[in-house]
Amino acid sequence: MITIDSLTRVYGGFRAVDDVTFTAEPGRVTGFLGPNGAGKSTTMRVLVGLTPATSGSATVCGADFRDLPNPARQVGVLLDASAQHAGRTGREILTIAAQTIGMPTSRVAQMLELVSLTPTEADRRVRGYSLGMRQRLGIAAALLGDPEVLILDEPANGLDPAGIRWMRDLLRGFAAEGGTVLLSSHLLGEIEVVADDIVVIGHGRIVAQGTKTELLAGAGTVVLPAAPTDLDRLRRVLSDAGLAVVGGDADAGLRVEGEPADVGRAAHAADVPLARLAPADGAGLEDMFLQLTADTQRESAPTLTATTRPQGAAA
Length: 315
Ligand SMILES: Nc1ncnc2c1ncn2[C@@H]1O[C@H](COP(=O)(O)OP(=O)(O)OP(=O)(O)O)[C@@H](O)[C@H]1O
Fold this sequence. Notes:
binds adenosine-5'-triphosphate, Rossmann fold, ATP binding, alpha/beta, 34% helix, 13 strands, single chain
């Protein structure tokens, strides 16, 4: 169990984390989602005692992390996969960690196998590891003490699609056995596939939180007319029926605030044949994430133009 209560962290007058309150429950994966610079890492750093809170509190397993007698036996932490000693091999890093926290060294081989680092890879120095291999080693280190809580900052960074699926299964399995998982990401897709609960942060403040199901429930409907030329007419029909069109386009379909049955009824009454009518699901959550964090987003990515395109690149 993780409890963050009215947590604020100020750096020289800048509120990196501003009155943040949420819990991460046992048996569930809690996704901590927000754009770059939103305050996710700072919250996690306070949680594991790496930086002090300005006010409020953050506890894990009912205690301040620094008060846990042997924290690695209760809490597995992966905040920065590149923070490992580059001159040691993966196996050496895990062996030293196992000795430090009082775990049998036999657990090292088990963890290496769990994270799919081969014996040859485990005997290579970490400086030669890819980012994905470092993440796997970091996960192995976090799990070494057989903890009940996992705190992971952007754990999917550098993993290939198979690695991301592996991570998802691992975290879901950990939660299914009663563990508490808190993982951060700035990528909605990563959080959406693995989390039971989602906490969205922007500009240091919580902008939405709830179960994934609750957050999806308000996501609306996606509707696409059978004939592209009917798109504008459909917009008018829906608007006349009091159903707000809040996004979408001719390819993805319109996203409408309302239930599919109401949207379908309005289209049917106006004789607009439909090609698609469905709950918005992931698309809706994406819109929600962008809307909720709109005022905290950096400017949208510039398009690649002739002046920004690398020389020699195709037009
Ligand atoms: N030690 C520090 N001193 C001053 N400002 C800091 C410090 N650490 C973080 N910040 C600022 O606090 C804000 C939140 O940073 P944080 O790293 O927590 O964001 P984040 O949500 O983890 O972002 P990302 O997804 O980019 O990792 C940023 O504006 C950052 O510049």
